[in-house]
Amino acid sequence: MQIERRCEKCGQMIPSGSRDCPACGETSRLSWRLPRNTLLVLSTLVLLIMFFVTAFVAKAYHARQSALGGQWYAAGERDLAAGHAESALVDFRSALGYSPDDPHIELRLAEALAAAGHRSEAQSYLISLSETEPGNGMVNLELGRLSAQSGSITEAVHYYQNAIYGQWEGNAGRPRRQARVEFAEFLLGVGRKTEAQAELMALTADLPSDPALAIQAATLLMKTGEYENATLLLSRALRLRPNDLQALQGIGEASFESGNYRDARRYLTNAKRQGTLSRRSQWLLETTNLILEMDPLAPRLGEKERVRRAQRAFAQAMDRLRTCLVARGNPDLNGQPQSDLQQVNQEASALEHKVRGPNLSRDPDLLLKAADMAFEIEKVTERACGEPQGADLALLLLSRAQGRNE
Fold first, then answer.
1. What is the pLDDT of residues 337-379, one digit of tens each?
2. Rounded to the nearest 5°, which phi and psi values hold at 13?
3. pTM > 0.85
4. For the chain, domain boundaries
């Protein structure tokens, strides 16, 4: 069915079946006009489709960016773990380019910078992070390490303490203990033994059942002179790992330094059965055996053996005394007051002829005097001529143990 249409140019009606306007000759086009509401709905649908397409593309882009950043970050972790600090720098910088506001990447980049020797740049990153997160344990630990390396003792103490009491991700117990161990090592390195001892005692109050950690803490405690607590820790480690070579050597050394030479020999001998002793432990075992073989005051000795040991100790000490006198030039008094070396020489010479022969067997008091004189000679000659070796060292250590027992 044909209908009339109005000319779009002149407004006259175009007859049905005709394309041209009879008034002006304009060729007419069909005009499809949609209702306003329909047009609005269609426009909204188009906009929604464009929005979701844009969101999808943006999400895909960010996902790709995140994936690339993650790949660079993983590469940096591998390189840093392998000791390739310079390569790790490139990796973490690339990762930071994809995730510029990620504090974890900034922290790892700072660690890589420090490992590569770029301390100033590493410190800049870390200080920036600490301003954002002042209680971050790892950031403070890294700053403590850098301060320790640069010799800034006050700053190192500040940052290490912040790390110990700072915030850590996940289970904070392990990293806090590690921070305290590092802090104690730092304090020992700068000669602050009392403070190091306090940190280690705090550490031992909260130790888990971990033999390796107990051995580590005990080793540090021995450096502060805390042999009793070190022995307790090493005993705990041995209960968990009875034949642990490191623990056996450690408790042997702690016993030796405490003057418990029988315990020292027992533990060190057991350690030798488990594996190869360290040079230090081998020397301790040899010295311990010598001490126990020479001790004239050891319990449960027969009379003959006690006399033999006392005479041997006195003769050994006299040889040391004469050697020391020669080394010091054997000075003439010339009216000057006697030195300790000259005085002990005078006293020992007066006693020397009495020590020979059967006198010691008949006179227990003389035997004690001979042993005490041997010990005194070793102490005086140590001050005058330096620490002895071998049998003389054994006698010197016996004299110290004797002093502790009196």
1. 468 888 999 999 999 988 887 888 889 999 999 999 999 999 9
2. -75, 135
3. no
4. 214-294, 303-331+338-405
8 Å CB contact between 98 and 69: yes
> Which CATH architecture group holds 214-294?
Alpha Horseshoe (1.25)
Residue 34 near residue 43 (C-beta atoms within 8 A): no
CA pair distance 406, 400, nearest whole angstrom: 10
* Phi, psi at 136, each rounded to 5°: -70, 115
pLDDT (tens digit, 9 = 90+) per residue, 310-337? 999 999 999 999 999 988 876 554 444 4
401 Cβ neighbours under 8 A, 6+ residues apart: 259, 261
Encode pLDDT of 71-100 as tens digits. 766 777 787 778 777 877 677 777 776 667
